[in-house]
Design brief:
The structure is a homodimer.
Chain A (H helix, E strand, L loop, with lengths): L2 E7 L1 H4 L7 H11 L3 E8 L3 H14 L2 E5 L10 H8 L4 E3 L1 H13 L13 E3 L3 E3 L8 E6 L2 E6 L3 H12 L8 E10 L3 H7 L11 E7 L2 E10 L2 H19 L3 E4 L4 H12 L3 E5 L5 H7 L8 E7 L2 H8 L3 H7 L4 H16 L2 E7 L14 E8 L2 E8 L6 H20 L6
Parallel strand pairs in A: 1-2, 1-3, 3-8, 13-14, 13-15
Antiparallel strand pairs in A: 4-5, 6-7, 7-8, 9-11, 9-12, 10-11, 15-16, 16-17
Helix pairs in contact in A: 3-4, 9-14
C-alpha cells in the first residue's frame, strides 16, 4: 500500500491561530483510493525548516502533498522551498502568468505587480492551474517522489486536488463512500436503529456524524473494483433506508433545502417565508440551491414588530395580547405571508434566539414555526435548549421549518 | 526563545477521520507564555514511528508536548513509546492505579481489567493525575528534554495542561497577538501598503490571511512582559490603520455586520434590506449578531419579479425594460424598501449568482447593489468573476453591500 505524507505550511497554523482542516480532508480523500497516510506535519513559514522536511519526507514516502504558502506575499515560501528541495531554481511559467492576469482582468482590475511571483515554479516541475483563485499549484519530483503543492484556502485546495491531483494518483484497493442524510432523529436514537451495521471490522464500514440535528450515515465499502464496492454500498443503503424511513431526505451532497425544492418542483408548488428569529436564514438556505427561483418566490424578514403588522397584516392586538413569540403570531405570520406573498406554502418563524431576551415563560431556545398550506395552518412549538448558542438555535429552527414542509409533502405524512 | 514541538497521536487523526484541534490549542497557550512552536506532527498508532519521532524531536527542541494514545486499548501506544524513547521500561504507578479504581468506584462500576495498563509509566518518569478521566498523563525526559504526554480528549487535555504542565514551564518572552479586520482591498494591494512591516524578522511580526475579500492582518509581538508586548501591538496597529485607512472595520473577533450595527447604534439609525440574488444572506448576517434588532428592522427577499412589484413597488415597466438584474431595478428596490419598510438606510441586491443564467451582457457574477439613504440613492455595479461559485458570489455580494453602508456612514466617506 502506498504511503503518503501531508505537510501544512503557515505560521498561523504552527502558532495555533488557525486550525488546519486541510490535512484531515486530504487524508480522507487518499484513504478513499487506497493510499494510507501515517504522518502529517505542520510547519511555520521558515525556509530551511520547510526544505529539510520536504527532503526527508520525500525520501521516506511514496507521495507528498503540501498545502499553503503559495500566496503573493513575502511570507509565502513554498515555491522557493520546493525548488531548493528539488535541487533546481525557479522559472516563470508563462501560462500561469496569463491565467493570473486573466483572473484580474475578468474582475476589471489590474494585476498587482506582486502577484507575478505566483507564476513562478521549479524549473523541473509544472504548474497546476487554479480555477478558483490566483495561486497556481506546483507538481515537482523530489528525489523521484511526486510532490503536489496546493493553496491553503480549503475551497481552492479541494477543487484542485479533485481536478488535478487525484486523477494522477495510483489507485490501490478501491474504497467507495456514500453518505445518507437524515433530519429529525438524534444521533443516539439513529445509532440504536443500525447498531449491528456499525460494528467495527464490518465491510461496508458504517458510522455517523452529526451537526445541528442533521445526522449523516457514512458508508465506506472496500473491494477490488469500483462496481463491486458500489454493489456493497447499494445493499447497505437499502438496509439503512428501511430502518430509518422518512428521516432520510437525501444522500451525498444533497441538502435539506435542496430536497424541499425538488419536492416542490415535482408538485408544481411554491413556497414563501416570513422570518423573525431566523432573520433570513431560511431564505438564504433555499436560495443557496441553484435554480431555487422555480420553487421559492421570496419572503420577508420582519424583525421589528411594526413590519409584522405592515408587511404581514399581523393584528396589533395579537402582538399585544400574546407577544411576538407566540403560537398566535406564528400562525398569523404564516397566514399573512401565504395571502400577501402568494405561495402554495408559507413558513413563518418567531422565537428567542438569545443570548439575552429569555424569560421563564419564553426561554432562550423557544421557537414557534408556522406552516400555512392548502389544507390549513399548523404551528409547531420547539425548545432548542437554553444552553445552545444563538447560531445553533437559528440553524435548528431554520432546518426544522424546512423539514416541516418536506414532511407535509410526503405521501405518508403523519406530521 | 524556547522552541516546542507538538505531537498528536492517533490513527483516526492521521487518516483524517477526526480533525485535531489539540495542537492548535496548545500552540496558542505556549505562545502566550513565550514558547514558540514551529512544528507539529500527527502520527498513526505505529510504535516504531512514534519512538523515532520522539527521539528526533526531543533532540531538536526544548520541550515536547504529546497528546493521545493513553487509552486502555491495544492501539494506545504512547506509554510504551515514551519508555522506549527514554531508554527505560514501564512500571506500575500505585497512586495512578488507586486513582483509576476510585474513578470507577465513584461511578459505582468495577474497573475493567484492561484499564490497569493506564497506570503504567516509564520508570524514570512520573504520572500526571487526571481529574476528568481515567488516563493519567506522563512526564519524562528524553535525552534531557522534558516531554509531557496528555490524553487526546480535548477537555481532559486542557484541564491537565493548565493544572500540571503550564506551572512547570519556563516563562520566556511573552508573545501577544492581535488581528485587524479589513474589507475591500485585495490581499496583494493591502500587502503592498504594509510591505515594510511584513518583512521577516521584524518584531512585531505582521502577516495577512484572506477569505472572501475579508483580509485579516495579524500582528504578533514578542517582549519581556505583557504590557511591553501590548505597547508594541498598539504602535503597529496605529501604523497599519494609518496605511489602510477606512478599509479596516474592526479587530480580533469583530465582524463586518457587527461593525455596521455598532455604527448604526451610535448614530441612532436603522437599516432595512431588499434582497434578490443574496436571498436573505444580508439579513442572516445582520441577525446573527446578538442585539441586532436595535439597528436592523427587517427586509424582504424578492426572488420572484412579482414580489419585487408587490412588496417593493418596483414598476413593471422598469423590470421589463431593463431586466431584474440592472442598475434601475437595484435603485427602485432600494427606494421602495426605504419607503415601504421604513429605515434610515435601505440596501438592495440583484444579480446573477449562477451557476447558470448568465449572458454576455449579464454574466454570472454581475451584481448591482443599491443603497438608499437620507442623502439619496447610489448603485454600485460589481463583477465577482464568472468562475466563482454561487456561494462565493453571494458572500461577496452580501459583504460588499454591508460595506457600502459602513462607508457611507464614515465621517470621511468618499464612496
Amino acid at each position: 500500500m502506498q504511503q503518503a505524507f501531508i505537510l501544512s505550511i503557515g505560521t498561523e497554523l504552527a502558532l495555533g491561530q488557525t486550525v488546519d482542516t486541510n490535512a484531515a480532508w486530504l487524508a480522507r480523500e487518499l484513504a478513499a483510493i487506497g493510499i494510507r497516510t501515517t504522518r502529517h506535519a505542520t510547519l511555520a513559514d521558515e525556509l530551511p525548516l520547510i526544505v529539510d522536511v520536504l527532503k526527508q519526507t520525500a525520501a521516506e514516502h511514496d507521495l507528498v502533498l503540501v498545502t499553503g504558502g503559495l500566496g503573493p506575499t513575502a511570507d509565502d515560501l513554498t515555491r522557493t522551498a520546493l525548488a531548493e528541495a528539488a535541487g533546481t531554481d525557479l522559472v516563470e511559467d508563462p501560462d500561469s502568468l496569463a491565467r493570473i492576469r486573466a483572473f484580474f482582468a475578468e474582475r476589471q482590475r489590474e494585476m498587482p505587480a506582486r502577484n507575478s511571483v505566483q507564476a513562478l515554479r521549479p524549473r523541473t516541475g509544472r504548474s497546476l492551474p487554479n480555477d478558483c483563485g490566483t495561486a497556481p499549484g506546483v507538481h515537482v519530483r523530489i528525489g523521484g517522489t511526486p510532490v503536489y503543492s496546493l493553496p491553503g484556502v480549503p475551497r481552492e485546495m479541494r477543487a484542485m486536488f479533485e481536478a488535478q491531483v487525484r486523477p494522477h494518483l495510483p489507485v490501490g484497493r478501491v474504497i467507495r463512500s456514500r453518505i445518507l442524510r437524515s433530519f429529525g432523529l438524534g444521533e443516539s436514537d439513529l445509532g440504536d436503529r443500525i447498531r449491528d451495521l456499525m460494528q467495527r471490522g464490518r465491510n461496508p464500514e458504517v458510522g455517523t456524524t452529526a451537526a445541528y440535528a442533521l445526522v449523516g450515515v457514512r458508508i465506506n465499502a472496500t473491494a477490488e473494483t469500483a462496481p463491486e464496492a458500489d454493489a456493497l454500498l447499494d445493499r447497505s443503503e437499502a438496509e439503512i433506508r428501511a430502518r430509518l424511513g422518512d428521516y432520510v431526505y437525501g444522500r451525498d451532497g444533497e441538502t435539506l433545502p435542496g430536497a424541499v425544492l425538488a419536492m416542490l418542483a415535482t408538485r408544481g408548488e411554491t413556497l414563501v417565508t416570513a422570518e423573525s428569529c431566523t432573520g433570513g436564514l431560511v431564505g438564504e438556505m433555499l436560495t443557496d440551491v441553484p435554480g431555487s427561483s422555480r420553487g421559492y418566490r421570496g419572503g420577508v424578514v420582519t424583525y421589528a414588530n411594526a413590519l409584522k403588522e405592515s408587511l404581514l397584516d399581523v393584528p396589533r392586538d395579537t402582538l399585544d395580547t400574546h407577544g411576538a413569540v407566540s403560537e398566535e403570531v406564528a400562525r398569523a405570520m404564516a397566514d399573512g405571508a401565504r395571502r400577501i406573498l402568494g405561495g402554495t406554502w408559507a413558513l413563518a418563524t418567531t422565537g428567542v434566539a438569545g443570548p439575552s431576551g429569555g424569560t421563564t415563560d419564553k426561554p432562550v431556545g423557544l421557537v414557534y414555526i408556522g406552516l400555512a398550506g392548502p389544507d390549513g395552518t399548523t404551528v409547531r412549538r420547539c425548545l432548542f435548549g437554553s444552553d445552545a448558542t444563538r447560531a445553533a438555535i437559528r440553524q435548528r429552527a431554520a432546518l426544522t421549518a424546512l423539514n416541516l414542509v418536506r414532511r407535509r409533502c410526503l405521501p405518508s405524512a403523519e406530521d
